[in-house]
Amino acid sequence: MRLKDKVALITGAASGIGRESALLFAAEGASVVAADVNDAGGKETASMVQAQGGKCVYVHADVSRAADAKAMVDAAERAFGRLDVLFNNAGIMLGEDDDAVSTSEDVWEKTLAVNLKGVFLGCKHGIPALRRAGGGSVINTASFVATLGAATPQIAYTASKGGVLAMTRELAIVHAREKIRVNALSPGPLRTDLLMSYLNTEEKRRRRLVHIPVGRFGEAKEMARAALFLASDESSYLTGANFLVDGGITAAYVTPE
Ligand code: NAD
Question: Is pTM, for the whole model, over 0.85?
């Protein structure tokens, strides 16, 4: 068991990467706190974990609200006595997010509030709990668009993920001597609700697939396996890293036929 006796808080756990990580972390011995704004999905995640014999509680938390961020960390310590792993994974991608000229301030502010401020607030309230546990692992979900400019303009989303990456590096350095490791997980395009509802026609999906060397979208399960490595002591010498799990996108400048 790779996370035996560890307590993990996962945001955005009602679906996609967060749900698959809750299932995998619990199967590897962790007690999991699943946080989300989607109560039906979050409760379903908790039931799925329990059905496979794992420990999981669901907490309603909007990561962009300080009081919710504090409450989700409190819930982890109350339910399981400590916090060892903080997975700041919740994120949104709004359909109206476009280039700088067309994107409204409202879309910019909503996106930055969840994707960037949400990670800040998770750390603000989660790091003191990790300190109380004697150290731990923080995983922040960024994206390949934090490294490469995307062909489809999404100025707010791209800026938010660039911020997550920069913040991850600084957090890693600042907290390194406290035995708190901080790494970014940067997925490529995935077959999850977030992207599939954005690429909502076959044509749009095909256009995105052209850029992926392995020729397919990634699966949330594949991100959960990468997150498991970052969460566990197997990555004990890794901090401040950008773990790109992207089907080769950022390695290529020409995609094979
Ligand atoms: P998803 O839509 O399946 O999951 C995102 C979850 O976040 C949902 O359950 C949603 O309810 C939750 N959420 C949204 N706003 C929230 C808030 N304010 N507070 C708490 N929870 C909130 O998508 P996913 O693909 O699993 O995305 C997870 C992360 O991966 C996101 O940060 C996303 O930006 C990132 N990512 C996804 C892709 C992709 O192609 N799907 C690529 C790169 C990065």
Answer: yes
